[in-house]
Specification:
The chain is α+β, with helices and mostly antiparallel strands and about 160 residues long. It has one helix at about 5-30; strands spanning about 40, 60, 70-75, 80, 85, 90-100, 105-110, 115, 120-130, 135-140, 150-155. The longest helix is centred in the N-terminal third of the chain and has 27 residues, at about 5-30. It binds dinuclear copper ion.
Length: about 160
């Protein structure tokens, strides 16, 4: 098969560009210590159930504050533990979420809380729930055949 000289040159340029870009991304990711988005700390995914504070998942008040809470949530295919989180109206809640198995999503509708939950990492996001109501909590990363059953709720009262 005959390939024109200019075509060979162009193919070579394309392949060389690809190698250079991959090398830049790889070097940057390693040297800058880039981790999955919104991940704050590491955790052993096999020991989540016995690692405080994930051994008692749920909402708890921040000591010394009037309307500030932390919520610890475990994503475990195909559900969230706890399934429902009751939050007082006006509360500022910081969610800490981890997975015991595969990559999940943690998206609370009508808010900007949208986390990728990676086993071995704890993802975090904070939101102030000013408006009372029923906020759906969804897994928005495909995690298996029962992915569409993986949901929960944040009830703001
Ligand atoms: Cu968990 Cu989809």
């Amino acid at each position: 098969m005959h390939i024109h000289r200019l075509e060979k040159l162009w193919l070579g340029f394309g392949i060389a560009s690809l190698i250079i870009f991959l090398a830049i991304i790889g070097t940057a990711a390693i040297s800058e210590g880039i981790v999955p988005p919104s991940n704050r700390q590491t955790i052993d995914p096999a020991k989540v159930a016995v690692t405080p504070p994930f051994d008692h998942p749920g909402l708890r008040p921040v000591p010394g504050s009037t309307n500030e809470y932390t919520a610890y949530v475990i994503a475990r295919y195909p559900s969230f533990d706890p399934h429902e989180i009751d939050v007082p109206a006006g509360a500022k809640v910081t969610f800490y979420v981890t997975s015991t198995d595969v990559v999940h999503g943690f998206f609370i509708t009508s808010t900007d809380v949208n986390l990728m939950v990676v086993p071995g990492w704890v993802s975090a996001a904070t939101h102030v729930f000013r408006t009372p109501g029923h906020y759906l909590l969804l897994c928005n990363e495909y995690c298996g055949v029962e992915h569409h059953f993986m949901y929960g709720a944040v009830e703001v009262r």
